[in-house]
Amino acid sequence: MPDASGIARRRTAAQLNATRESQYRQRRAEIIQVAAEVFREKGFDGATMNDIAKGVGSDRASVYYYVKNKEECLEEIVRDVLRANLAGAQRVLLQEANGAEKIAALVEDMISSYDRNFPHMYVFLEDFPRLTRQRGRWAQDIMAMTRRFEAIVSEILVSGQADGSLREDLPVRLSALALFGMVNWTYCWYQPGGRYDPALIARAFSAILLDGVAHR
Amino acid sequence: MPDASGIARRRTAAQLNATRESQYRQRRAEIIQVAAEVFREKGFDGATMNDIAKGVGSDRASVYYYVKNKEECLEEIVRDVLRANLAGAQRVLLQEANGAEKIAALVEDMISSYDRNFPHMYVFLEDFPRLTRQRGRWAQDIMAMTRRFEAIVSEILVSGQADGSLREDLPVRLSALALFGMVNWTYCWYQPGGRYDPALIARAFSAILLDGVAHR
Fold first, then answer.
1. What is the pTM of this model?
2. ipTM for the assembly
3. If you ran DSSP here, which 8-state letter would residue B44 be given?
4. Among A122, B132, B178, B208, which is most exposed with the fewest C-beta within 10 angstroms?
5. Do A214 and B165 touch, CB atoms closer than 8 A?
């Protein structure tokens, strides 16, 4: 049965390949996880591929087999964080709560994610406007997730106007951009361990966004 | 009277030098003004020193006598805009108005200045976080003006808490950073001639910042 034997051989080869591919992916994911820790500790500019190699208990040459450079590690980290943030926003959208409560939850999620993912998300936000002019698969993925995120925020704002918790006299898009401005601008000033902790910042920003700084 | 004659000669030379220097400065200012117009028309990336030379009715070589490159033009433009914005903020601070009204006036001034000074201020804001890590005279000037601007916003917020127009339960620094975030983040999305004009954006942002997006 030469044909059947050929199939078996090809299946075994395919299974071996699949195993190898899965091992490759797993090792790559480990390296990227370690890269995130190295960036957090040394800053993105201060980190080297050597530091990352040391972190995974390997040498630089082996690490290069899995990732091209630290920029590629950062890209993967940012993609993962945005994916998680998007899933979080989707959960907020589906919560049993009114629009105002969902906005507060979203602000808290974003500030907390930026803190947990310091400095990666800030290195990313620093380059964000340049990104919007880039091509390439990664930039496309990022922009698609960003647009989806914006759409969710708009949906929440519209639902809040419908349930009576949010004002109807403000353009939804400008309210969404005000939210992104306040929260994303933290990349210019936020430092973990600084004067204001993430929970306090989130509470203050929610209060400002929802109720304003004016005395009632 | 050899001494007196020597003084007269030196005075004449000094006056000639002063005239030359004043002419040089004036010509340089004209070129930078034209550079601003060229950037507005072609964008910063699209503009060349040739375009600037054509705009002043001269050739590239003569223009290089006055400015090193287009980056230097941009730096001068941004310094002038920030100086004007700072003077504007100081005028707002001294207005006969309560803190809430001053905050609205400030937001309007900033949005309107960013629109009038498109795209220079946005090219600058895109590089702002990098700037804060730079040395050099220009970066020092810019950071000093930025700090002064922040101090004025804080003064206005504190005065508003004192006159009863602003809430006292929000940290002044976080309110100031929320304002800068909303207004400065426009660099990621604002386009002159877009869906929302600067006056509408300023009104919406003042309303959000002062009264919030929640229904009362």
1. 0.88
2. 0.87
3. T
4. B132
5. yes
Over the stretch A79-109, which tens digit does the pLDDT of each residue have?
999 999 999 999 999 999 999 999 999 999 9
DSSP states of A44-109: TTT--HHHHHHHTTS-HHHHHTT-S-HHHHHHHHHHHHHHHHHHHHHHHHHSSS-HHHHHHHHHHH
Domain boundary among B17, B33, B67: B67
Domain holding A10, by residue range, is 1-67
Contacts of B204 (CB under 8 A, 6+ apart): A170, A171, A174, A175, A178, B196
Q: Do A100 and B189 touch (CB under 8 A)?
A: no
Q: What is the CATH number of the domain that holds B119?
A: 1.10.357.10
Per-residue pLDDT of chain B (216 residues; tens, 9 = 90+): 556 668 888 888 888 898 999 999 999 999 999 999 999 888 888 999 999 999 999 999 999 999 999 999 999 999 999 999 999 999 999 999 999 999 999 999 999 999 999 998 888 988 888 777 888 899 999 999 999 999 999 999 999 999 999 999 999 999 999 999 999 999 999 999 999 999 999 999 999 999 999 998
Shortest Cα distance, chain A CAs vs residue B116, angstroms: 20
* Contact assignment for B213 to A103 by CB distance below 8 Å: yes
Q: Which residues of chain A are within 8 Å of residue B178 when distances are taken between CB atoms?
A: 182, 204-205, 208-209, 213
Q: Among residues 49-88 of chain B, which lie with CB inside 8 Å of chain A?
A: none
Same domain assignment for residues A108 and A211:
yes
Domain total for chain B? 2
Say yes or no: B12 and B116 in one domain: no
Same domain, A94 and A49: no
Q: Taking Cα atoms as reference points, which of A188, A182, A177, A186 lies closest to residue A205? A: A182
Do A55 and A16 belong to one domain?
Answer: yes
